[in-house]
Structure formats: C-alpha cells, structure tokens
Write a structure and sequence with these properties.
heterodimer; A: Beta-Lactamase; 5 strands; B: alpha/beta; 7-stranded mixed β-sheet; 15 strands
C-alpha cells in the first residue's frame, strides 16, 4: 500500500493479469493480507471474492482447511503463499483443501513474491491448479 | 501556480500544416509556482522553445520531472538552454527502475552515438532523483509522484499549491479488460494522482475505434480518459498526448466525442494545445481559450 492508500502498481497489474488468465490466482499484499482472487479461484475455493473480502493471513490460512496429501493439517507458515511472504522466495506444494461449497479438492500451489524494486517487497501471488485423478 | 503547455503531441514530433492548431511538439509543460520556482513536466521537443523564454533562460534552478524515459518525453533535453549554463542547479526527477539508475538510463540517449555530448559533461550542476512513491516538496508546492500503468516504469505527478492541484499523466492505460466503474478506487492506476484534481492533463491518444488494435501499448482511448476523469472526480479534463497521425480536424472530432461521453456542458473536456495557459489560484482556476 502506498502512502496515499492506493495499492502498489505491481499489485494492480497482477490483479489485471489475474482477471484475464484462465488459471486460479490468489494475491496478498506485503502483510500477507488477501486482497484478491479471481473467478477461477472462486470455483475452487467455493466462495466469491466479493463475499470473502480482504482477509488477514491468519484468517485465510485456516479458511479452506489446508492439509497435506496424508490429511495432516498444514500450518500457515508452511503454505506456499506464506513462505513467499515471510521468506520472500518461491514455494510450491500440493495441498488438499475443502471449499466453502463443502467439496474437497486436491490442488498444486505455486507462489512467488512480488517486488516493485529490488528492495521493495509489495506482496505475493499464488497460482494453483486442481489435480484430477 | 501557472502552467503553460509547450508540447502535447505524443510519440513523435509532428510539425506541419495539419497540426498547426494543437501543435506538433512532444510533451512539455512549464509550471511556475507562486514563489517563482520553475518546474518542468517532461522534456519532449517543446522544451526547446521553453528554454528560450527569458524567465526560464535566466533561471538558476530548474526542476525537471520526467514521467518516463520514452524518447518523446526526453528528446528535447539536450536542446534546453539552461542545461548548458554553468552554475544552473538542474534537478531531474524520474521513475525508479529495478535495473539501472536514472542517470544510466538517461545517458543511453544523452551520450554518443545518439548525442554528441555525454550527460556527465554538461556544464550545469545535475542532481538526479528517483521519484518517490509518495509526496515531496519542491519550492512552495507539494508534489505527489506515483507509478502508473504504461509500458515500462512511468509515474504520474500531482502538483499541489495554495489549495489547488494540477495532475499530469500523459501516458497511461489505466485499465485493460474491465470498467473502472466496477472496481474499488484503490485498484485504479493513477487514482491518487488525479483524485479531485482541479485540472487533469491526461493521455487521450486513441479513438475508441483505434484502441482495440493498440491494447497494451500503454495509452488511453477517449472513452478511457473520460471514464478515468469521472471516476477520479477530476475538475477539468485536458486531453493530452495527441497521436501523431491525428490532424487538427481529427482531434476536434475526438473532443466532440469526449464531450458527448462526458454528458454535460459543465467543465467539458478540452484539447491541449501549444500555448495553453492554466492559472490555478486559491480563489479560482482558468484555462486559456484556443487560438482562432
């Protein structure tokens, strides 16, 4: 967030990309607050973004009950997007989640940090895919 | 403050009988603050004539605010008289880049083989500043710089003095694939720069018919700029950065279209032209009329 309350241009452009591409995309700001997910992500997460609204990391980290493939709970700090925010590096892992529509899904998540300059971290983006079969 | 437009053409200088009413020089706007501080917005070819005006030629301090480094915003710099005057304090502000310093990027133009003299060898005293993402002071004004959506690093500027504000976003594609009216203002590129400004000088390069073939080139259609001005609540929209292929008659057709989209005769959009003067005083602001 800039000093004027407007979101950083890199986040604005990331959202424009997310709104156009066919892959589910989830975007957080530099504090890890969920600020946007696209229509394709809505289908997997089982909730419209307009209904979810902006969520702090501790809220979205639990909302979809993320689990590893052995059904063990995955804490927030081990989620790819949280790693991208906290450690400022890319991360990837498969997860099981339960959408707010009650459907369990297996997804692959790749997250990476966003910098507007070398030293200016502005947020992170996750792209994910549903695994079938 | 008083602003004077010395160039409002986009992309390429376009002199000739077809462009005589609105001018063929590329982007350059002079802003004289109430305390006498000289600010110049962009260094397109219009800056050459500006440099010959006595109040500029005799200036001891110049603040040049570059929105970005495309040639149409930079190519006049080497022909600006005060740059070559020893002792002039010359401050250049421009967008930061993750790759190279502002000086390194400007030097790609101001150095051989594209220019005979290297920027390091100009006699004025140069100080280069990365424009901050936020406010800073120049003379008696507060200036807001903020990155905006164009092709590559670019910023818009808002100059605020005496309760008045002038917003300048000459190259801007604020939205792709959605309506600005559908999204929260915090997601709109350039919103803070233009929000509630008394006067907004904004990219208006393409007609609505031309834009679909130019998506992603970093410029606005007439419909975009009108929507952007209305969403941001700008007081008076000045259509800026005219396409080099557009004759005076074509621009006047764009103005008609902009006014139709505006939907009101009150504070209707106007075309920028070389010589346009904009007075922003505490009690009022005014735009000069187009020459006959």
């Amino acid at each position: 967030m800039s000093t004027t309350g407007q979101k950083d241009l890199v986040l604005i452009l990331a959202r424009e990309l997310a709104a156009q591409i066919a892959s589910p995309v989830f975007i957080v700001d530099a504090l890890g607050t969920l600020i946007y997910y696209n229509e394709h992500a809505e289908q997997i997460l089982g909730q419209r973004f307009e209904d979810a609204g902006e969520l702090a990391a501790h809220e979205w980290g639990d909302r979809w009950n993320p689990r590893d493939l052995e059904h063990g709970r995955v804490p927030l700090e081990d989620l790819p997007l949280a790693i991208a925010v906290q450690k400022r590096r890319p991360a990837h892992r498969p997860l099981q989640i339960t959408g707010l529509d009650g459907v369990e899904r297996t997804i692959e998540v790749t997250a990476f940090p966003l910098f507007s300059r070398d030293d200016r971290f502005v947020g992170a983006i996750a792209i994910f895919w549903e695994r079938h079969g | 403050m008083r602003a004077t437009i010395w160039g409002c053409r986009g992309s390429l200088a376009t002199p000739g009988p077809e462009t005589v009413r609105y001018g063929g020089n590329t982007s350059c706007v002079q802003v004289m603050l109430d305390d006498g501080t000289l600010i110049i917005l962009d260094a397109g070819t219009g800056i050459r004539r500006l440099g010959m005006v006595s109040e500029v030629a005799e200036a001891t301090t110049v603040h040049l605010l570059l929105t970005h480094l495309h040639l149409d915003h930079l190519e006049g710099l080497g022909f600006f008289f005060p740059l070559w005057v020893k002792g002039v304090e010359f401050h250049i502000w421009g967008p930061a880049s993750p790759m190279k310093s502002l000086e390194q990027r400007i030097a790609r133009y101001l150095s051989p083989p594209l220019f005979p003299v290297h920027i390091k060898d100009v006699p004025s005293t140069l100080t280069l500043h990365d424009a901050p993402d936020g406010e800073f002071e120049i003379g008696s004004a507060r200036v807001l710089a903020q990155p905006v959506a164009h092709a590559g690093p670019a910023v818009g500027y808002r100059i605020m003095e005496g309760g008045r504000s002038l917003a300048y976003i000459p190259d801007h594609e604020p939205v792709r694939g959605m309506s600005l009216r559908e999204i929260d203002p915090s997601w709109i590129s350039g919103f803070s720069v233009a929000h509630g400004a008394d006067v907004l000088l904004h990219d208006s390069q393409y007609s609505e018919a031309e834009y679909p073939d130019k998506v992603g080139w970093g410029h606005s259609s007439i419909a975009h700029v009108v929507e952007f001005a209305q969403v941001t609540g700008a007081g008076r929209l000045v259509l800026f950065h005219h396409d080099p292929l557009h004759t005076d008659e074509a621009l006047e057709a764009h103005q008609l279209r902009a006014r139709a989209l505006w939907g009101s005769d009150v504070a209707a959009p106007v075309l920028a032209y070389e010589g346009m003067e904009i007075e922003l005083r505490a009690d009022a602001f005014s735009l000069s009329e187009q020459r006959a």
